[in-house]
Amino acid sequence: MFDAQIFTPSVQGPIHVHVPPAGGALRRFRPPPPPVGNAAEIERAARALRDAEIYDGDSFLALTGDKRFVWSASGASFLMFGVWGRAWIAMGGPVGRADEFDEVAARFAEAARAARAWPAYYAVGADAAARLAAHGFVAEKVGERAVVDLRAFTISGKDKKDIRNALNRADKAGCAFEMRPPGPLGDMEPALRRVSDAWLAMKAGSEKAFSLGRFDPDYLSRFSLAVARRQGEPVAFANIWIKDDLVTMDLMRFADEGPGGGMDYLFTKLLLWAQAEGYARVDFGLAPLAGLDRQGRPSTVARLGAFIYSRGGRFYSFEGLRAYKDKFNPVWEPAYIAAPNRWRAGAAAVAVAALTGGGVRNLLRNSRKGLAAPGRRRQPFARIIGRA
After folding, report:
1. H-helix or E-strand spanning residue 324
2. What residue spans define the domains of the chain?
3. Which of 38, 200, 367, 368 has its CA 20 to 30 A from that of 307?
4. What residue intervals traverse the membrane (predicted)?
């Protein structure tokens, strides 16, 4: 609250008027967003996922327990999202019936406007980005998704020698691979938790959310698990979402870089298993902020991407993630942020970092250093992302 002094010709001296701060008043009258989905709504999303005609490699994140939902009138389609300030960020595009894409997108935008918020989408593919353009959204590339075509995958040839050597070392060390069907973790939970805790300790980090899965026994019980063992003990694992001809890897944890304990063994064995089972593709997920054009006159999101690349933390190495997945010769499919305008696209990227966890704090710690586009003076972080 503050007192404003107003001078008038007919009154001697100032009149003191008590004026409430506008931000607080607006917040009091802003309708709240829908609550985070409860157990019943998550089960509803799981049923919609099973029957979905449209989905992407991240659609399973509807089951993490941290998403809010907008549904079609039929209840067969949904869109999941998170809230950060006035930003409503959808994780991927609509999921469910193909003929309900536009309905769900319109309902999401209407609900955001009713709450005096603004909507955006994270990690949508090219087709969804094109359809969202009809709803007034502009798309900015935010990364690339690594999808391996199993019909062409092989570990033969000189360029795969390192992979074959890693498999041979693992076999000699007594390593084995298994696919565990969905269900309670049971007696395996303590061993898998030890692997997960060791991985977190190596990364000096903590569990993330929103755009990433996390170690949660109830969440993991919904998926098949790819497990690597050394001398009978789990040393690496990943939960796997399977839909139609697509196999998607979500959470991946390993205890050490020894035989069978690193990513090479688990990734390769998973690819060979999926190939033998007749699946067509394996989605290794998004390499965020990879493949962005940071030359010439970069976009807001590209400049933010360069900022994170150059000053990013230790928890997820974006450059290393891209370089690592490249060894399996994936097709790199573009992923986009779709927002009402390009300034909001930059703000949406920051919101995703905040929702995922820890990203904004790390960025702000380095914000005084700024980021300079080629040929331009360095700019403060607030100028890079624009106003929300």
Report:
1. helix 318-326
2. 152-279, 287-385
3. 200
4. none
